[in-house]
Structure formats: C-alpha cells, structure tokens
Amino acid sequence: MDIQVKMTRAERSWVLYDVGNSAFVLVMVTAIMPIFFKDYASAGVPAAVSTANWGFANSIASLVLAVMAPVLGAMADYRGRKKTYLLAFLLLGLTFTFGLSLVGEGQWFFCLFLFVLARVGWAGANVFYDAFIVDVASRERMDLISSRGYAWGYIGSVLPFLVVIGIIFTAGMADGLPATATKAGFLVVAVWWLVFSLPLMKNVHQQYGIELSEAPVRDAILRLFATVREIRQHRQVFLFLAAYFFYIDGVDTIIAMSTAYGRDLGFGITLLIAVLLFIQIVAFPFALIFGRLALRFSTRTMLLAGIGVYCLATLVGFSLPSIDDVTIKTGLFWFIAFLVASSMGGIQALSRSYYARLIPMEKSAEFFGFYNIFGKFAAITGPFLMGVVSRMTGHSRWGVLSILLLFVAGAALLCLVGEEE
Question: Which residues form the Major facilitator superfamily (MFS) profile domain (predicted)?
Fold first, then answer.
C-alpha cells in the first residue's frame, strides 16, 4: 500500500524542519524560557502578575501573526513564492531568538519584546511550512506524513533540550536557573533550528500555485476576499475551522502556560524539566499511533478522542492546588503529563492533514493563512482568558478551569463536521 512506502527525499526534508523548529517550542515556549522569564527577567514581580504577563505576551504574538497571515498566504500562493516567505519568517525568528541572550535581570518588558518577535517569526514560518504538505505528500499519505512530522519533532527536539539542560546543570542551579548558561541555551536552540531548516530549503519545492499577475498585491487581496466567500460557502470547511479555533486554543494554552502554572503550584525547576522531557519522549510514539489509528477509524474520531483526554487533564490540573499531600500532588502532575503527551501530537498532526485534504492544493498557503488565523486568534484568547481569570481570582487554578470551556465548545462543533468520505 502507498502508506507503507518509504518516505521520499522531499517528505524527509519536510519532516526534518519539524525536528528543528520543535526545539523552539520546547525550550523557548514551554520549558526554559517561562522559568527564565519568571525567575530572572521578572525578578521582583508577583507570581500571579508575571504569569499573566507571560500569557499576554503569547496572546500578542499570536495577534500579530493572525493579522498578517491571510495576505501573506495569498501572496505566497504565486508560483515560487512560498519558500521565500518561509525563509523571511525563519530569519526573523532566528534573529530574535539569538537576541534573547541579551536580556538582563529585571528586564521583563525587553524580554517579552524579543520573545514576541521571535515567536512571530517561528509561527509565521509555520504557516508556509504547513502549506507545503500538499507539495510533498499525496492526499492518502497526509495523515501519515503529518503525524511523522510531529512525532520526529518531539523526539528530535529532545536532543538540543538535553544539551541546554546539560549546560544549565553544569553551571549549577543553587538559586534557580543560571542566567549566562540559560542564555547560551537560547543560542543552541537557534543553531539547531537553522541546521534542520537547510534540507527543506534544498529539497522541498512548490508544486502547486497560481501564476504571478501584473498586480500581485492587489490581486492577492482580491483573491483573499474571494476565499472568505468560498470558505463560507463550504460548510464542512467552515465548521472544521470553527471547531479548530476552540480546541486548538485549549491545546496551545496548556503548552504555553503549563510550566508557569507548575511554578505557581510550587514544583521545582528540576521536576518541571523532567516532566517536559517525559512529555516529549512519550509524545513520539503516540503521534505515530494517532496517524495509524486515523487510517482505521476516522480522523474526526481520533480528534474527539484527543480532546476528551485534554478535558480530563484540565480537570485534574484544576484539582491540584486543593491537594496537600506532596506525593499525591506530584503523582497527579505526572499523570497530567502522560495525558498531554498521549494526545498533543495526534491532535495537531491530524488537524493539519484533515484540513489539507479539504482545501484546493493550488491555494494551500492562502487557505492555511485562514487556518492559522483561527489557530492564532485561538492562541490569543486562551492565554488571555487564563491571564484575566488568574488576575481576577488571584489564583491561576481558576484560569486553568476556564480552558475546559474551549475543549467542550471545540468538541461540540467538531461533532457537526461530517465524517470523511
């Protein structure tokens, strides 16, 4: 069968980019950077305030890209342009990831400024990277290749993470993260990301596109409005995007805010790092399993299963502050990590491949611009909601509980999307 054929050079190169950019997610969004921001860049700032500021920064980064993504997607669908835009955002992300090594103690605003630009670069490059899936994989192989991208991204990002952790532990952690060693870790992330981007730049080429017009910007904007009308006319696409908006909001919020919440619960840096490493390793086989199960059942069924697992993880996370026994609390935190790891990659990979099969291939970047609008605006509302609720209540556990609403709404809308033919 076609799904059992070895990956082509283009497919391997596309997957390797996920290996490179996943290091940014693990170190800069999920693990090290949130701790560095709370303990070093936000020195002297109350815990609830710094957690809220971190949430607001992630929301701002998503807002910037959400505003730009549709027009950029429409422009990138001209033949030969998709890779150019990917490279531009890649350079933006790399530059400001390097820049984060310049942050001083207490410079929380400067730190967030650099982080927002670095995350905009990372997320912007992903718009065009995701759109390239139609150029490297057939429709029958999209679930499989998308899942492999996320799977190898998880396991591949562990290597630079271990290097960063090695640098940090070598420098000593008596009073928290050593600043100089942590900043060196940011440089490791940038170099890793760059190296694993090179195969995609060399071996992946745009197969589908629109011929360049005499007025490309004007025509791209006009085509953008036409796409809006086209999406509204296709009920399945619109329903899927609406469902995606809610459930991916919950997924992204947990990824972005989990470490900060763990610090609020009193867990040590060593435990948090160990848990995040565990998640990356466990997520590798489960992402592949989700891809295989989608072939046997349906992609929608597997997405609903993943959302259900996240609902359970959210409820357990909400209950943690009320548990006094340290052993039980720690055990439940590890249980949450397993739940997140079991569904994180599957939800993201199958969402990408499911959507890719619904859209016209020659307009993939434009349609993925809308896909990322829904994803990025979702990533605004989740951390913002958690930040606002945490500030209003004075405790981040209520912010965690608010995320449950996003999963429930996403699952309800996804049930309205028809099964795949």
Answer: 1-421
Helical H runs in 77-141?
82-99, 108-131, 133-136
Region for 176 from its dihedrals, namely left if φ exceeds 0, alpha if ψ lies in -120 to 50, beta otherwise: left
pLDDT of 4 over the 60 cut: no
pLDDT (tens digit per residue) in 130-182: 888 888 887 778 888 888 888 888 777 888 988 998 998 888 766 677 888 99
- At the topology level, CATH places domain 10-414 in Growth Hormone; Chain: A; (1.20.1250)
- Report CA-CA distances (Å) from 412 to 24, 234, 270, 408: 32, 19, 38, 6
Which pLDDT tens digit goes with each residue over 255-310? Answer: 666 666 676 667 777 777 787 778 878 888 888 888 888 888 888 888 999 999 98
Q: Where are the domains of the chain?
A: 10-414
- CA-based end-to-end distance of the chain: 19
Interatomic CA distance for residues 226 and 213, integer angstroms: 16
Name the nearest CA neighbour of 295 among 411, 144, 138, 147. Answer: 144
In single-letter form, the type of residue at position 302 comes to M
Q: Cα torsion at 272, 180, 95, 262 (round to 10°)?
A: 20
Tokens of residue 101, six digits: 């090594």
Q: Give the closest residue to 41 by CA, choosing from 92, 119, 101.
A: 101
Residue 113 contacts residue 135 (beta carbons within 8 Å): no
Alpha-carbon distance of 206 to 193, in angstroms, equals 21
Q: Tell me the Cα Rg of the chain.
A: 20
The more confident residue out of 396 and 190 is 190
